[in-house]
Each structure stands twice: as structure tokens, then as C-alpha cells.
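Memo to structure team: turn this sequence into C-alpha cells by end of day. - J.P.
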Amino acid sequence: MAKRMTVCALGAASIVILSGCSSPFDATNTSPKSITRLTTPEGLTRSMSVYRQEEGESDDAVSLPLLESTPESYLSYALYHNPDVERAYQQWRAASERLPQVSSMPDPRLKVGFFLNEVETRVGPQQARVGIQQTFPWIGKLRDRKDAAAKGALAAWYLYLNAQLQVTEQLMSGLHELSYLDSTIVVTQENYKLLQSFEEVIRARYRVGVGSHPELIRVQVELGLLDDRVLQLQALRPSYVARVNAVLNRPPNTEIESDLVLPNHFASLSAEELSVIAEDWSPVLQSIEQRIEQQRILSDVARKNGYPDLTVGIDYIITDEAMNPTIPESGDDPILVSFGINLPIWREKYDAEVRETIARRLSISRELDAKNNSIDAQIYQAWFEHVDADRRVRLYEHSLIPKAQESLSASLAGFRTGDSEFLDLLDTERTLLEFSIAAERARANRGKALAKLNRLVGRAIPTTIDATFDESFSTQPDHSNTDEAQP
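Reply from structure team:
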């Protein structure tokens, strides 16, 4: 009776153990709380990234950066809130969670069996069998799997860094475009005021019979065109603001100040030097290199998959008392130790697995070569755009605009004395306006190209600081101070 109770207890314990194991059909909640809701003053909501928050922490445990009217503050805010950065971060976390999965031993197997018809032996009838087995993979297989998973996680980490660089470029490009638009609005409004002063002069001359009516009409037409241009530029600003807010993960109508001062930096290294730096710092190239190394390790894993794994087991056979209790060893429960290996005799599948990893490694190696060539070409193109824009900034600020201002002053003086025509004055004013707008365009292109270079190289490249341009144009830019470029 005691033996039967033991068998029943073992059976119940086995059922409890098996029922506690997870099943692929079990319903699980795989959506941890990774975002909170940020309420804006306008009552709108936008998800606020807290992707550095660990599971179970309160929302107050994460200190989010405050947004100030500086490029550094905008960048910090974007890197913490942008969904593309969070996506890349979560992909790295998912890849890092592969390490304990692939490096763990296989789960042991618990076996419970009941004899429907008891096996009668000399020492008594056998009623049940309880056993456990553990498989031990070939030497080094688990270590190689873990190393391969670590390379994959490191590749995902470099992609996370690249996502930060991409968001940085998007933000700085958007801010430069917005700064260009705001500067163009200011320049156009200043020229509008200048034309208004022309109109007052012409109107006064017309009253005394010196000026002509066509001149008055012409200046009024020019004022209408400039007014329309200002209105068009102001109507365009919300779309530029929405572009920046998209990077910041904020509602598109969130206001951005127009007094944001962006740094004027110029790259101090050549395209050849930047290309060499990119080979060591580009996170895209680093990620591909880690994937190549991952496939090399997986080739070793594939070879070791063709080696047998050892399985060790122990069985306990429950035996009842013999019919003749005087028999020696009556009711003794035998214990069986077993050893086994799998037989990897179907070699074609293991050889194919090795060939697959080799082919993947060669494919990724060619991908590395192609990406390296592409980055080099993009660096040379961005460097040209950056240098050419800087050349045009200097040309307009230190040559063309001062000459246009001087010409405008001379034309205005001659017009007042009657030595020059009004059309000459109007053409000079137009030239000054176009030169001023072209200078702002070149300055924005210079900053955008520098942001692109930083992304391609993988870090903030060394730069020189351009001196602040003043309205007198009497000060030449000073490049004696060098520092690291702002993102």
C-alpha cells in the first residue's frame, strides 16, 4: 500500500511540474510600459519616450531634459524623445536578451511512466518508472553561440548610435532651414522698409513737380511684391516648424522661437582625412563588421552541430514487495544510469549549414565594401557642398553685400540730386536683397553639409569657428580658434 501511495504522489507531482511549465498557447502580455503621455499646454498629447526606464520603475525615476532655446537643448530633447532612437534602442535590448537564451544548457527532461500491466520480477512487480535526463552540448558550442549573439547585440548597438546620428542630422538640417527662413523674412522686411523710404522721397518729389507719376507707381508695385513675398514666407514657416517638431516628437504646431542662434563652424579637415576617420568611427561600418564576425563564429557553431551531444540520464524503478517476502532483495527499487549520444549521420544538412554561414559572411563582406565606397563618395560630396557654401558665405558677406550697400548709397544720393534714375536705384535695391538672401541660403547649406559630414564620419569632426558677421563688414573672420564642431 505504501508503494502505491508513493506512485500516486509521484504522478501528482509530475502533473504539477508539467502544468507549471509555460506553453506556447499561453496568453502572455508582451507590451511593457515604455512610454508615458505628455500633455501640452494646448491640450494635445504626444508620446514621451522613457526608453531608458527599466521595467517596474516609476515614471518619476526618469529625469527628462528640459527644452531651452539652444541647439544643444534641442538636440538633447530630440535624442531622448525621438521614436526612431527608441526603436533602435529597443532593438539593441532585444538583441542583448539573446545571450542568456543561446548560452543556457538545454532543459532537463523528467520522465514518469506507469506499467499498465505490472512486470513481475523475482524481487517483486515493477509498478512505475521515474527518470530525468540532461543533454550536454559538444564542447564549446554554447560558448560560441553566446559569442555570436554578443556580436549581433554589438551590431545592434552601433545601429542605435547611427540612429542618434541620423536624428541629429535631421534636427540640425531642420533648424538651419528654419533659421534661413526667419532670416529671409527679416531681410525682406528690412528691404520693405527701405522701399517705403523711397516711396516717401518720390512722393515728396512728385508733390513739388520734380518726380514722375510712373516712378511713384513703380515703387508702389515693388512694395506690393515685397509685401506678398513676406506673407508667403510667413505662411511657409509652420511647415518648417512642423518638420523640426517631427524630429522632436512634438505636436506640429508647437511654437519654436525665431531667435535661435546656430553656430557657424567650418570643417578644418580635408575629405581624404574625413574618409580615413570614417573607417574607424562610422557606426554603420562598425555594425557590418560585427555581423561579419558573427557569421564567422556561427560557422564554428555549424561545424560543432555535426558533432554528437552527450545525454546522461538516471531512472528509478518503483518495485512492490515480492509474493514471497523471504526472497532476498524483495521490494528493492533498482536505479538505472544511462548514457547516450545523438548520431549526426545525415551529413548533408550540417555541411549545408556551414556553407550557408560562409555564404552569408561573404555577402556581408561585400556589403561592407559597398557601404564603405558609398560613405566615401557621400563624404566627398558633402565636403564639397560644405566648402562651396562657406566660399559663397564669405563672398557675399565680405565682398558682394558691402559693394551692393555702397552702390545703393551712391544711387540714393544721386537720385536725390537728380544725377541718377529711379530704375538704377530700384535695381540696386533688388541686388542687395538677393545678395542678402543668397548669403543666408549659403550659411544654411554650410551648416546642413556639416551635419551630414558628422553623420557620415560617425562623430563631431574638428572645425574652425567663423567670426560673427557685423553690419559694417569691416571685420574679417577669425579662424585662429579651433574646437570640436557642434552636432
